[in-house]
Design a protein that fits this description.
The complex is a heterodimer of chains A (113) and B (110). In chain A, 33% of the residues are buried. Helices cover 0% and strands 50% of the residues of chain A. With 113 residues, chain A is mainly beta. Chain B has no helices and eleven strands. Chain B starts with a strand and ends with a strand. Classes of the chains: A mainly beta (113), B mainly beta (110). Chains A and B meet through strand 4, strand 5 and strand 10 of A and strand 5 and strand 10 of B.
């Protein structure tokens, strides 16, 4: 049973470009969560999704960031017009229900140059 | 009220010693309290978790102590080993999402 798969592992974008981060949850998991981790800092909640629904996006910046989890395929975190401050590690986690523990992926490390 | 405060920020322990990391929270709606371990360049991995109706949970060398009235919980690592050197995060769950503490960087010296 494969874990949470995130790709790419590393992503380099120039300022102003778009970044697309993908997350395939564990088999049987329909709840997906995105977190951002800056160097030497903790994990900041961004968004919580269930299939085709955004449950909680209280941690998402109001502009440039969006997330989806379609009926088929991976969850996507999209960052438009990236800026240097977006450079961070982005982690996705999944769980089978809202009442069980998360399993995290290995993350995507985004560098904006 | 959504914060989880974790201390210390860093911790150095001798091999064989006990590592203790503490967390405190305010939101009484939190219903699940996990601890995660993270190695450099890796994603966090679930170590052990507790629900608020239990005061202690032990799994191997790892123990969570939970004090509901004080709104505090702690992780104890017995017989700490160099391989335990990592960053540890406490967390608390509110309506599905986990709120994380700032992390504790543990270094176990041989």
């Amino acid at each position: 049973n494969a874990g949470v798969m995130q790709n790419p592992r590393h992503l380099v974008r120039r300022r102003g470009q778009e970044a697309r981060l993908r997350c395939s949850p564990m088999k049987g998991h329909s709840h997906v969560y995105w977190y951002r981790q800056l160097p030497e800092e903790g994990l900041k909640f961004m968004v919580y999704l269930q299939k085709e629904n955004i449950i909680d996006e209280s941690g998402m910046p109001k502009e440039r960031f969006s997330a989806e989890f379609p009926k088929e395929g991976p969850s996507i975190l999209r960052i438009q017009q990236v800026v240097r401050g977006d450079s961070a590690a982005y982690f996705c986690a999944s769980s089978p229900t809202a009442f069980e523990g998360y399993t995290f992926g290995s993350g995507t490390r985004l560098t904006v140059v | 009220q959504q914060q989880v405060k974790q201390s210390p920020q860093s911790l150095i322990v001798q091999k064989g010693g006990i590592s203790i990391i503490n967390c405190a929270y305010e939101n009484t709606a939190f219903d699940y309290f996990p601890w995660y371990q993270q190695f450099p360049g890796k994603g966090p991995a679930l170590l052990i978790a507790i629900r608020p109706d239990v005061s202690e949970k032990k799994e191997g060398r790892f123990t969570i102590s939970f004090n509901k009235s004080a709104k505090q919980f702690s992780l104890h690592i017995m017989d700490s080993q160099p391989g335990d050197s990592a960053t540890y995060f406490c967390a608390a769950r509110d309506r599905g999402k986990l709120i994380f503490g700032q992390g504790t960087e543990l270094s176990v010296k041989p």
